[in-house]
Amino acid sequence: MTDLTINGKTVSMDLDPETPILWALRDTLEMTGTKFGCGAALCGACTVHMNGQAIRSCVTPISAAAGQKITTIEAMTSGSDRVGTAVRDAWVRHDVAQCGYCQSGQIMSATAFLKSLPKGKKPSGEEIDAAMAGNICRCGTYARIRTAVADAARTLG
Question: Global pTM?
Answer without folding.
Answer: 0.95
